[in-house]
Amino acid sequence: MLKKHYKFSIYAFAIVLFVSGVFTQSCIAKDDAYTTFIQANQFYKSTNYSKAILLYNKAVSLGFTPGGLYYNLGNAYYRNGNLGKAIVSYLKAQQLLPRDGDVLENLNIARGQTVDKVGSSEPPAALRQFLFLYYNFSLDELLWITSFLIALLFISLSVYTFFPYSLIKSIFKVTAVILIIIGSAAGAKFYHVSSHSIAVVVAKQAIVRAGPGASYAEMFVVHNGTEIKILEKKDGSAKIRVDKKKGWIDINDVDII
User: Fold this and answer.
1) Average per-residue pLDDT in the chain?
2) Single pTM value for the model
3) How far apart are CA 81 and CA 255, in angstroms?
4) What is the dihedral of CA 130, 91, 210, 203, to 10 degrees?
5) d(CA 16, CA 37)
6) What order do you get walking across the sheet with 245-250 strand by strand?
7) How many domains does the chain contain in total?
8) How far apart are CA 69 and CA 72, in angstroms?
9) Looking at the predicted structure, is the pLDDT value of residue 6 above 70?
10) CATH code of 12's domain
11) What pLDDT shows up at residue 14?
12) What is the separation of C-alpha 53 from the centre of its chain, rounded to a whole number of angstroms?
């Protein structure tokens, strides 16, 4: 018994050390990422946009990905003359900060300077108001709210089992209705994100061909900053749709959101 207990203690101690080490490394990585982000902001303020871009991307690679970082990165790319990368960053910022007016304004300014005028504008205001939850909350926010409501639903049901008061029953019913509404918005947003791949042309211009590869005939050209939909990927190429036109493009010429 003593040996088994000793062995278990060693294993338990090893697990504790491992978990502590992982947690410590995670904290250190987060601190490094945040420090990198602050340094990037300083370079941005001093108009050294190339260095700022380098450090913003380093912070992203370290796992620091708030909406504000992508917004700043978009501004740095824009001021550095890289319209396509700026639009990519603004779109990522918009996914995380859907109610931020500055993000939308800068995105529309960048869109207005693209060569290819395609249908990539925001939906009508009336539609955004009608589908308020869908357009004004990020997927993470909707999922967190849905999780909270599910927990509240089960808690109220459990409490009602032992204390069948009318107030608790009313809370259960109201929570269920709100859960259906917000859960539907979360489900619709999740489906859209998982089934619709949006990309932006980041090359100066890119040839769209009839098939996947340089051996296929050229169909048309898209330019830096053009937003496209990815339909399929094959052999280093992507089948895209631009407005009503379809074709294949070198996947290295685009950034997928």
Assistant:
1) 86
2) 0.80
3) 17
4) 160
5) 31
6) 218-223, 205-209, 245-250, 237-242, 227-234, 197-201, 254-256
7) 3
8) 5
9) no
10) 1.25.40.10
11) 43
12) 18
Give mean pLDDT, residues 129-155: 92
The answer for residues whose C-beta is within 8 angstroms of residue 64's C-beta and 6 or more apart is 30, 33, 34, 36, 37
Is 48:56 a contact under the CB 8 Å cutoff? no
pLDDT at 39 over 60: yes
How far is the C-alpha of 252 from the C-alpha of 206, rounded, in Å?
Answer: 10
Instruction: Please tell me the total number of residues recorded for the chain in this structure.
Output: 257
> How far is the C-alpha of 113 from the C-alpha of 116, rounded, in Å?
9
What's the burial of 59, exposed, middle or buried (CB within 10 Å: 0-12/13-18/19+)? buried
CATH at 238: 2.30.30.40
Q: Are residues 9 and 47 in the same domain?
A: yes
Residue among 251, 183, 201 at smallest CA distance from 91: 201
In a domain, 7, yes or no: yes
Per DSSP, what are the bridge partners of residue 237? 234, 250
| Percentage of the residues of the chain whose pLDDT score is greater than 90 | 69
Residue 122: predicted pLDDT: 64
Residue 150 structural domain: 129-195
Nearest CA-CA partner of 226 in 214, 209, 213, 243: 243
Q: pLDDT-derived band of residue 142, with 50, 70 and 90 as boundaries?
A: very high
Do 205 and 251 lie in one domain? The reply is yes
pLDDT at 194: 80
